């Protein structure tokens, strides 16, 4: 692979694209700190063009977020995951899958959905996952998960009744070979249920501003038309399409879900399509996100001008967004804390992430920024016990 080359359109292979958004992000892991969203000049598909396969692999090798029990959407068994699993199960039952059906969850992460299916009586459900640490974690809990790459499954051809792929396609560098592989292992008329974040509706569910454009491992941005066309070209017929906002644990926030139920057939390899609308929707989302940060920008300007000592509690995407799109970086950040042991010790802006016990050493003049949309209420509660003398501000209104 030629590293200096820009990525071609992962849907139609066209080599030229228009850059619709480009911004520098505050890098947490030094892998890539430039975000470039391009729209294919032939089909309009929006994808990250300035990204290379080696970097994507290196990102996953260095990233342990998916191992975290509390991480929603990575095969866990938290309330928001179970809520989604109920939705998937209803669709699969309506599609007349039997308890004896061979079901494979591709990119199953910690294997939560496989476990759920097994508990619901689908005894032949199993999973495939690329990340060895996640496979080991699932196996340790007795969940049938195998190690397997997304373009070479360990299954015989025509052997599987249903393939599920939730939150997978938006991550793939090479989409076509993965769909070919799903097609290969499915029996004729076999089913495939896929879910991706709906790029046609990023602003539909409430999340933190810029959330959907700053998840750097999301390198493909599908809407209903591009996802349907991709599978039609890969030999599938769309038999169901579902749009909905799926709530996280904290019901204030929601995931703009797009699901397709597909049936293996001959498809239409020569299908031509275009989806230029998505680029406009993503640009609008970006603008709206900038406007939504206005309140926090005013607060940070004040802290910066008063030279307040700022302690940040919460070291996730929200912090990365604030460091990238506001003047928080110019404030006097004296500490970054996070309860997740996997994050403690990481260096961000030359500061080592520490546990909440660090608060005891912060003087009364400091201010704490509660920097989490999902855990805000819990952090505030804990903060009032640990350091009642400290003023705090939350990133949520
Ligand atoms: Zn294209």
Question: What is the H/E string?
Answer: EEEHHEHEHEEHEHEHEEHHEHEEEEHE
Distance N terminus to C terminus?
46 Å
Label the structural class: alpha/beta
Instruction: Give the full name of the CATH homologous superfamily of the largest domain.
Output: Vaccinia Virus protein VP39
Strand content: 15-25%
Provide an overview of this structure.
The chain is globular, with a radius of gyration of 22 Å. It contains eleven helices and 17 strands. With 397 residues, it is of the alpha/beta class. A hairpin with a 2-residue loop joins strand 14 and strand 15. The protein has two domains: 57-288, 3-Layer(aba) Sandwich (Rossmann fold); 296-394, NAD(P)-binding Rossmann-like Domain (Rossmann fold, 3-Layer(aba) Sandwich), CATH 3.40.50. A seven-stranded mixed β-sheet has the order 6-5-4-7-8-11-10, sandwiched between helices. The structure holds zinc ion.
Which descriptors apply to this entry?
397 residues, Rossmann fold, binds zinc ion, 24% strand
């Amino acid at each position: 692979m030629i590293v200096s080359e820009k990525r071609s359109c992962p849907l139609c292979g066209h080599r030229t694209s228009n850059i619709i958004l480009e911004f520098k992000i505050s890098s947490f892991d030094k892998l890539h700190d430039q975000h470039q969203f391009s729209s294919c000049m032939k089909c309009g598909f929006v994808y990250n063009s300035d990204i290379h396969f080696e970097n994507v692999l290196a990102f996953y090798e260095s990233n342990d977020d998916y191992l975290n029990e509390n991480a929603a959407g990575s095969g866990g068994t938290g309330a928001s995951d179970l809520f989604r699993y109920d939705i998937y199960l209803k669709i699969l039952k309506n599609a007349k899958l039997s308890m004896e059906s061979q079901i494979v969850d591709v990119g199953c992460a910690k294997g939560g959905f496989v476990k759920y299916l097994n508990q619901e009586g689908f005894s032949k459900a199993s999973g495939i996952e690329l990340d060895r640490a996640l496979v080991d974690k699932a196996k340790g809990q007795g969940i049938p998960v195998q190690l397997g790459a997304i373009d070479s499954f360990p299954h015989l051809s025509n052997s599987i009744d249903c393939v599920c792929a939730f939150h997978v396609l938006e991550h793939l560098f090479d989409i076509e070979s993965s769909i070919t592989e799903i097609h290969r292992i499915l029996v004729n008329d076999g089913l495939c249920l896929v879910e991706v974040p709906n790029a046609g509706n990023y602003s539909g569910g409430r999340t933190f501003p810029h959330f959907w454009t700053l998840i750097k491992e999301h390198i493909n941005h599908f809407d209903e038309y591009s996802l349907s066309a991709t599978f039609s070209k890969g030999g599938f017929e769309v038999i169901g399409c579902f749009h909905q906002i799926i709530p996280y644990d904290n019901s204030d926030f929601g995931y703009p879900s797009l699901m397709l139920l597909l049936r293996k057939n001959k498809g239409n390899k020569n299908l031509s399509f275009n989806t230029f609308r998505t680029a406009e929707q993503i640009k609008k989302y970006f603008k709206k996100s900038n406007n939504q940060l206005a309140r926090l920008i005013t607060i940070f300007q004040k802290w910066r001008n008063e030279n307040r000592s700022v302690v940040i509690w919460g070291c996730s995407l929200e912090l990365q967004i604030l460091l990238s799109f506001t003047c928080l970086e110019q404030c006097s950040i004296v500490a970054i804390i996070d309860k997740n042991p996997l994050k403690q010790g990481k260096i961000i802006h030359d500061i080592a992430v520490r546990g909440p016990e660090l608060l005891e050493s912060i003087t009364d003049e400091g201010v704490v920024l509660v920097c989490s949309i999902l855990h805000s209420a819990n952090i505030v509660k804990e903060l009032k016990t640990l350091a009642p003398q400290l003023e705090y501000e939350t990133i949520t209104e």
